[in-house]
Amino acid sequence: MRNTKILLLAIVAAALAAFFGLGLEQYLTFDFFNQLKSESPLLTAAVFFSIYVVVTALSLPIATVMTLFGGALFGLAQGLLIISFASTIGATLAMLVSRTLLRDWVQSKFGSYLKTINDGVEKDGPFYLFSLRLIPAVPFMVINLAMGLTKIRAVTFYWVSQIGMLAGTAVYVNAGAQLGQVDEFSVSGILTPGLIFSFVLLAVFPWIARSIMGAIQAKKVYEGHTKPTKFDTNIAVIGAGSGGLVSAYIAAAVKAKVSLIEKHQMGGDCLNTGCVPSKALIRSSRINHYIHRADEFGIKNVQAEVDFKAVMERVQSVIKQVEPHDSVERYSGLGVDCIQGKAEIVSPWEVKTGNETITARNIIIASGGRPFVPPIPGIEDITYYTSDTIWGLRDKPERMLVLGGGPIGSELAQAFNRLGIKVTQVDRSNRILPREDEDVAEVVMEQFRKDGIDLRVGYDAVAFHKEGDRQWLEAKHDGETKTIEFDVALLALGRKANTASLGIEKLGIETAPNGTIEVNDYLQTKYPNIYACGDVAGPYQFTHAAAHQAWYAAVNALFGRFKKFKVDYSVMPWATFIDPEVARVGLSEQEAKEQGIKYEVTKFGIDDLDRAMADGEAKGFIKVLTVPGKDKILGCTIVGYHAGELITEYITAMKHGLGLNKILGTIHIYPTLSETNKYAAGEWKKAHVPEKAMKFLARFHAWNRGE
């Protein structure tokens, strides 16, 4: 098979070399074909047909030019007949070549398209290919090559392409035919009604095709549902967390009527059980930690006693302070109709809450997520909390088991440990923070152990047990059974999307294996007027990610008939607020390796930064990934004091295409932590100094000294 591939590729290469080597391209001119046509129309059609097939089969990027050429040469009717069949035959041959000869090359060149196309073919079959042909979401050539790596049958590929490309081919052939009728290339010769109309048609065809496809898909999707003739509201938003609040805010800001439905508390998880309470707890724990470090700063005889109940009450008071930002009063004042109650989607345009049914032109599902509780045997017998329920704890336990080594588990494990609780943190991975690089996790684990946290990594939870007042976890580690005793357990094993009781199953709205709602690049579900954003949609479960998605969901819902926007995740940052903090944007090393992306690493130790030394926080590092030989930033990870603030400079740089040279050339105040970013850029610059130029400069300076 390998020898066959090599032979066929050699034949193709030899044919191309012979074609150009013999100067045969000189015959591919309009004058030559026009003269040939006058002498032998059938021969001309056959030659053009053959050339078009070969050009398309070889994926040469001149198909559009040849279509216009063919229209000018043969006119609309004959040109459409010739080009329609030639393009489809050539495309099918290109698909078969990709399937048999170029699999590895196509995989490496167009890998980014393959998953999307495979998923589309798997889900919608020939209809997906038809939609690609009618409105090319990817280039014509790429569709041919990428389809070769799918399971679609060649016969199906042919007839769907033949039908799907017909309308677009007709538009281009018509434009060519109109150009062929131009007698002279003057203003009066070009500005004919037919030619103007043909080019206007070229411009608006994608929009027309998109509208046609939208109508076809809508008819298919909404079959069996009756659309109301008028609506109570423009948007019904389900969930008043970050995603829901931002969606409602945007809709109200542009004077749309919006209903916001929340069955629990305004502000969602972030305000009531997530970001706000956890950061308030971390602040108290950090103050206590600094008190215990007072000797380092020359302050003697400092003592403190943790009033655990008061700490937890302070957490609630902070929630109360922030609460007005997300209150019913504020959003009602903005013009949002805030409704307290459970929401159920009963049709693509109807949401039932209590005894009321609201008709909405668009629906945004922003119902958030909830902590995942694993089905570990015996879990119902023990005293356990989740990140939602831990805030009700008032009596300080002596021993706490934290199950989970992700950001939530790590933040809470360190915070409770620094408040005087003996914490054992357990995770089945060989390190905590498994999404980050190994060197990042090592710095964090070193600090955790220094703090006194009993880290148990590589432990797989098997069962919980309880006898009287005694509770323990049975876990496997290196094939041995271990027991870990505790007073209370905190489960921090990720979150699960809140989709139960929404009614989406009855409507056939799909969910991913992890429970999130399936959405497209515009955050639309199966129904184009129903959107989802935030934790319920994924792929990121951050408050700022939910707010980011909410803008796209709201704008697409309100104005999508004119212009839709694909959600952009290209520069998605996050931070874990432990000590030292971990913040990242873009790629990590392990992600770059997994994706086969080439990179260079520049690293600067924060222990060498003046301000970090002065503050007694000289630990951690900054690591920047760049394109080899260039200063373009692929990703940045910062481990250290206030990393969540420092990362912003790199977020801005990546968002606006600024490289390390720009950061190096920016004045940073001394002494500040932000100098970390400049020094990292300086390390990159030193590693890329042109050696030959430096040797020349050394000789120049020596000459200048008279040596």
From TrEMBL:
Cofactor: FAD
Highest taxon listed in the record's lineage: Bacteria
Gene3D superfamilies, A to Z: 3.30.390.30, FAD/NAD(P)-binding domain
Pyridine nucleotide-disulphide oxidoreductase dimerisation domain: residues covered: 572-679
Transmembrane segments: 47-73, 80-102, 127-147, 154-173, 185-209
Domain VTT: 63-177
Keywords, ordered alphabetically: Disulfide bond, FAD, Flavoprotein, Membrane, NADP, Oxidoreductase, Redox-active center, Transmembrane, Transmembrane helix
Family according to the record: Belongs to the class-I pyridine nucleotide-disulfide oxidoreductase family.
Protein name: FAD-dependent oxidoreductase
Origin organism lineage: Bacteria, Pseudomonadati, Pseudomonadota, Gammaproteobacteria, Oceanospirillales
